[in-house]
Amino acid sequence: MRVGLFLTCLNDALFPAAGKAVVRVLERLGHEVVFPAGQTCCGQAHFNTGYRRECVPLARKFLGDFAGLDHVVSPSASCVAMVRENYPELVGQSPPVFELTEFLVDVLGVTDVGAAFPHRVTYHPTCHGLRLLDLGDRPTALLRAVRGLRLIDLPDATHCCGFGGTFAVKNADTSVAMGTDKARNVLATGAEVVAAVDNSCLMHVGGLLSRWRSGTRVMHVAEILASAP
Amino acid sequence: MSVWLGMPPFPEAAREALADTQLRANLRAATATIRAKRAAVVAERSDWEQLREAGRAIKDRALRDLDTYLLQLEERVTAAGGTVHWARDAAEANRIVIGLVRAAGADGVVKVKSMATQEIELNEALAAAGITAVETDLAELIVQLGHDRPSHILVPAIHRNRAQIRDLFRREMPGAGEDLTDDPVALASAARAHLRREFLTARVAVSGANFAVAETGSLVVVESEGNGRMCLTLPEVLISVVGIEKVIPTEADLEVMLQLLPRSATGERMNPYTSIWRGTTPGDGPREFHLVLLDNGRTTALADEIGRDALRCIRCSACLNVCPVYERTGGHAYGSVYPGPIGAILTPQLRGPDPVADSLPYASTLCGACFDACPVKIDIPRALVHLRTKVAHPATEQSTMRAAAWTLTTPRRFALARRLVPLATRFARLPGPWRKWTHTRDLPAPEGESFREWWRRREGSP
User: Could you report the predicted ipTM of this complex, rounded to two decimals?
Assistant: First the structure.
């Protein structure tokens, strides 16, 4: 299958490993990945902050960048939710975008991607993955199939980490209070790695874990799935 | 709608609340308890989603033909011996109530907990007119004795724990002895003794209503303590102040609403007291009944295609109890009688623009827990985003967002900007508004090959 990669602007700027991981996983499963080089940003930050008008040209550009592709896959639940939920109203249509884990499980019918990652991992279901995309147990099913990986339940897993896009800056104190509780719950699991399907949330929680010098790492689920035996 | 004088916008008010560790502990314990209870009783119903859908449909039907149903309600209430008054805003509603209390020759009223009268600040208006108002709901009484503000729609004193309430009763409640303990039974008994005298002597009662049935002219109050039943039956004059969005078309609609409300609100299958009354009945209950129908911004909200969904709200507080922002900041930070997610969309619409109201649509991470919990399926995140497009944006934010949009519309500009990122993240502290990030959190500092370099290298290789 020929699959378009929607990297997202945040991953492009700060988390290139997530994009590389998606390519490795899909190629390992025998699919061809194309990367439309003109792509930038889906406009979610603008849309959610109340700059709807500024978002329209970004949405139009997105449609052009990914035109002609039957499947567009992204390592970001929240950007996929933005395109799927809001583009129809903004620009009249929504391209066929999938979050990586739903693409693997629903479209390709795969839960074992042949990865190995011998570490203790806890999983944070990000709000947009959980509630907008309704990913359910797809990400954890994929993680459980990884050789050597021990998945540990995260207390209060479904509670928001407090990132919330511009909320993290506009309401920084509340955001940090929420993130602190999330990071403490992560530490309570004793996991070496906290994984998620959104690097934005991981940037927030990981930023706290890093400031505390906790030694616990954040990783995108794609990176774990890309780890070869 | 009243502005809480001196309240700062949400981020600033939240900062103060976050620093209060006792408040955060009280809130966490209380909301976690209600959340667990609600989840258990909701899980018992296999038809919960159908009930929610029915609740949404009933409220939408009522709002779609609101004028028709309100006129029908007026006709039925009048036919049953009641009097209907229409109040455009808070001042008009307060004037009507004060006039009615004076006409009854009373200098005091007993009150059932009512959000509508909180909204119009009736107690303050009555006090200014020399009329004493006594709140008879236990939590409202705690708030009133403490010269405090309610911080939750359903549990107005959620921010106080038992020890704080005991101290307050000892200090402020006539007849509460020095030996009063913080045992809930002892606290409730002290309040009961205090209130009994008020119930038996009051000649006028003021209530709100959870529902107003157009078909029959019936008003409905749902409560847990029996104080409402006392107020609704004992005094000679009953005045109910009701928002116009509380009307539902038929009595059969109560079948749905009375299943949704208690489960969502207190996590109970059924609430202890449901009182339904209609006009007056000779020899039984109040001799006079007045219904004050309150607009106070509701018709403005109704005119907004997305914002109007907030008028479906049945004031159950389920959204407050699941909201991670509310759980940490408490209700006072919202600067309004309607706190939490529903307050963040209702307050700006009822009140109109001001710095506090403009900050409220941003008091959310858009996590969506409120939408999942709402028994009438109000898409609160969607309404929040919609209202964010309508508020005044700070000039620096506007220029930043526009510059970002400009940068992101061409790959060349984006590529240039992206090259600056590794440089920026090398600083432990970022400049400007981004300082708020690096003050407490590290930023990732990507090393090595960018995605695009890696991709080009692979594509270029044979």
Answer: 0.96
